[in-house]
Fold this protein.
Amino acid sequence: MTHNLITLFLINLALALGVSVQASAADKPKESPNILFISVDDLRPELNCYGNPIVKSPNMDRLAEAGLLFERAYCQRAICMPSRVSVLSGYRPESFDFSWKFSDERMPSGTVSMPQFFKGNGYTTISIGKIYHANDDDPEGWTKRYEDSFYEGHGYCSGYQLKSNKDTVHTYLYKRENELTDDVPRPNSCEIADVPDETYTDGIIAAQSIEALNELKQSDKPFFLAVGFYRPHLPFAAPKKYWDLYKRDEIPLPANPQDVVNGVTRSEWEELRRYGDIPGSGPVSDDKARELIHGYYASVSFTDAQVGKVIAELERLELDRNTVVVLWGDHGWNLGEHGWWSKHTNYEVSTRAAMMVSVPWMPQGNKTRALVELIDIYPSLCELASIEPPSHLEGASFVPLFEDPSRPWKTAAFSDFGGARTVRTDRYRLIEHKAGGLELFDHQNDPGENFNIAGDPENAATIADLTAQLNADRSAMKPIVSDEN
């Protein structure tokens, strides 16, 4: 039994006996730690470890128990392309408005990506699945890239297994590119196929990751292994056994499907509307909503199983003793809140992402409500590897939170999307629209962001303070850290 498994057994035993216990940490290894960098597309914090007992996510729950779970982590732009480039470059998208690739000509000269940084410091860097939005991005960053586990087709990412759906999407994409017509059938948003995991791309990614770990075990160099899973990105296509984990009639609809009172943001959720079983305008029916939520949960459980396979192999090879594991979602995802689906807003559900980090020599089994941002991942991994970070990074290391998860930290997190920008503090979210209009939400009284109170005169001072934070130099927005904490 590996160190982490023993630790978890002791924690569970203590909990069963009603004993309060803090998991002990191993000694920090003398050699450079390995890094297992797991990204999950469209993963909102909708897991058992985040308080949703319906979702079956035992492997990610276990990973959270073996490290630190971040309850309030925020992306910098709620769409996958810039969010991923932001994480891997260390820049906020607003710094120079990149939107697609790290290799964009707008990227400042001399910028060192995260994989480039670790490769330059003696690491073997491997990319499997969807890490950047484009598989050919940042070629200098990788020692090796697995190209056969990467698939994109106008958003129908990582596709279908049923022949009917395959034929439909191939015909649609061909006609879209060559005949410019919109009257051809489109595939469905969900698919249930009674096939093995390895039939779908995420199953292949897990198998390739296991293969890579066995190769890396033979090397005397540290590794940075990046593993990018597609689900729960649309389409909600997963093996039948994961759909069978849930009873559709027991899946609740969102508690706040209504429009935001005095809301300014508008979302047409075009990403979902490209599917043939979704109306071109207006809401979906309750039955369709339950099918979509069912499909999202099944897809989460499918990816959770693949994460479990990779972690199990890491432990079997005894690489877990010297490997930092970070798992993050590139942004949130709306499941019918305010009648919206997909991401693409500056609201809480779109910008808040799942994130957990396991470090063998750090305290385990903790959660933190500190405000952190996805751009903090890069400098944190640098600190954990004891390597001086590049000077251009705009995030801040969250490593001190491992020792004291409740310590004072960042006072705000920032995101932007679609001509609007937002600041999230401990209590408030302010959204400033470039075209005019403000939205203010008080999370103390309105965690669902159902009432825009920006127009209330008594909130003028709060808006002035939040606007000042929006306009301030981001480099000044550092965590509160002192020798007393």
Summary: The two ends are 36 Å apart (CA to CA). Residues 286-316 form the longest helix (31 residues).
